[in-house]
Design goal:
single chain; Aminopeptidase; 5 helices; 5 strands; 35% helix
Length: 122
């Protein structure tokens, strides 16, 4: 697996991540520019991911997978779990994908699902 960091959320990548971003592309664009989030290209554009690190007093550092679209999420999941484990970080995954949710809970040992409720602008 070839993973490279990108610095710009291009229109092409926005389209590739549109489902995962759920209309929050402006937030992610700014967060990437401000180094709050990191944008990754996997296998020369087969997949894209956005991650960030969060720190709090209760859990220490948490690696957050904010968005992922493309092929072989299983391989990428093993990759980020290895990184998190080697750094003793917790991991949190934001997903609308039922498949990824099931994999996280059954295959990768995730627990304590977090529910995020969102109300659209009126």
């Amino acid at each position: 697996m070839n993973v490279k960091k990108l610095l710009v959320l291009t229109p092409e990548i926005k389209m590739a991540l549109a489902v995962s971003m759920q209309g929050e592309d402006q937030y992610f664009d700014q967060a990437i520019k401000q180094n709050i989030c990191e944008l990754w290209v996997i296998n020369n554009g087969e997949s894209y991911a956005i991650t960030r690190l969060e720190e709090n007093n209760e859990n220490g550092i948490t690696l957050v997978l904010c968005c992922y679209e493309g092929k072989d999420i299983d391989c990428f999941s093993r990759h980020i779990i290895k990184i998190a484990d080697s750094n003793k970080w917790a991991i949190r995954v934001h997903t609308y994908s039922k498949v990824l949710k099931k994999w996280c809970l059954t295959r990768y040992g995730f627990n304590n699902p977090e529910f995020v409720l969102k109300r659209s602008k009126k």
